[in-house]
Amino acid sequence: MPATPTGAPSASPAGPDATAVPRVAIVGANGHGRWHRRSVAPLHAAGRLRLVALVDVRPIEDEPAAPVPPGTTVHTDHREMLTAARPDVVIVCTPPHTHLPIALDVLAADADLLLEKPPVLSTAEHRTLAGELAATGRACQVGFQALGSMALAQLSAALGQGRLGTVTGIGTVACWQRPDGYYARSPWAGRRSLHGRPVLDGALANPLAHAVMQCLAVAQTVTGRPVRPSRIELERYRVRPIEVDDTATLRIVTPDGPPIVAAVTLAGEDFVAGEVIVTGTAGRAVLEYPTDRLLLPGDPHPRQVPGRRGLLENLLAHRADPTGTPLIAPLARTAPFTAVLEQVQRAPEPTLLDGDLVTVTGSGPERVVTVPGINAALRRAAGQGALLSELAVPWAVPPARIPLAAQDD
């Protein structure tokens, strides 16, 4: 496909032309990038943006729900694309260890960012990216789409109204399954590092990162300020010969807020989409964050809360009105997540669970390994604010306890 873009050059850092249709590109257009293509397609069709380029090192996969529009150019190198297509907004959906260098190239090309989670892998990388955002005046939205949930907004409002009393704990539980094929999807899958660079494709850092981030968002609502972790306590387990966790309990301790416990697995017996449990002196709330179902004190059962603010639409609105439309998930909001993630990366290797501790079903790429009793154990951990080792789980190991220095945005 020819790479001959047309249209006006991108806006300067002083601010975009509010009358121009933003030119959008996607770097990492296959895999999860297809989800972004489906999100972009109706906005392109409505004339709210123009999809000008796709980038991937592999041939672009077909996506029936989002066919490539005429005139959209295809590239294998993001730098070539930035020069040729001159986008105003770039969606980056590549492996986590590639995020920072690509993001810096995007900012140097005077474009704004929608950067998939995890945005970066260390506080040093976070500071580097934040510094470039300040220097260029560009915007960066991070792909924690659950932060745009109206259910989260209602939970936050209930906390502000005191409906739960004093919040004493925040927990999250999620039990998913991933077959062997999941870990064969790419060279970085299941890896702690690749070619000397951190990767961290573990349950806490990647598929269930939203669970951790939602808890941090709730904690910020409770205290009125961004979370500053002072210590994390971490137990990591794995049911395959991978380098990262597929099962974990994590406690985040802060100097001025309730403790946060994440209890997650990719080796679950039954599917638990993901619940954030907020416990207070006057009651308990449960937010199923992937489905936007919310249970507040006094409710007879969970109810669906419709409505999510799309991150790309919010970014476009912010470009048009930076002071009147704040970003939903700016980079600064993710600083506590990155601080925790960095310590997960540095923690001891996950403990292998095998033999009689696991159940194996299926074969080949569809082979699934589960841990009997894991769902009930993780529910107890999230509900009680405990780690698995504190619940007398027989195979649990003592946690790594890691103090954290004060973090700056």
From TrEMBL:
<protein>
    <submittedName>
        <fullName>Gfo/Idh/MocA family oxidoreductase</fullName>
    </submittedName>
</protein>
<dbReference type="InterPro" id="IPR000683">
    <property type="entry name" value="Gfo/Idh/MocA-like_OxRdtase_N"/>
</dbReference>
<dbReference type="Pfam" id="PF01408">
    <property type="entry name" value="GFO_IDH_MocA"/>
</dbReference>
<dbReference type="InterPro" id="IPR036291">
    <property type="entry name" value="NAD(P)-bd_dom_sf"/>
</dbReference>
<feature type="domain" description="Gfo/Idh/MocA-like oxidoreductase N-terminal">
    <location>
        <begin position="23"/>
        <end position="144"/>
    </location>
</feature>
<dbReference type="InterPro" id="IPR050463">
    <property type="entry name" value="Gfo/Idh/MocA_oxidrdct_glycsds"/>
</dbReference>
<keyword id="KW-0560">Oxidoreductase</keyword>
